[in-house]
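Today's session is about reading a structure prediction critically. Students often jump straight to the picture, but the first step is always the sequence itself: look for stretches that repeat, for charged clusters, for runs of hydrophobic residues. Only then move on to the predicted structure, which in these notes is written as discrete structure tokens rather than atom positions. Here is the chain we will use throughout the hour.
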Amino acid sequence: MRPRYDFSKAKVNPYAKKLKKQITIRLDEDTLAYFKQLADDAEIPYQTLINFYLRECARAKKRPSMRWKAA
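Below is the predicted structure for this chain, in token form.
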């Protein structure tokens, strides 16, 4: 970095806490195809759509209904 840059008056990024975190997730092919089709219809990236949906679920505190079958 060049010595003439002065960051002494720099401010902390107020949006840094809201940045997204990259993860790896495994989804069924049909689930992914469903979200990709919805995203195409809405003209937004499918990853953004999945994030919107998961955020909505988290805000509403939705819980999945799961019933495990005994082996």
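Discussion point for the tutorial: The radius of gyration is 20 Å.
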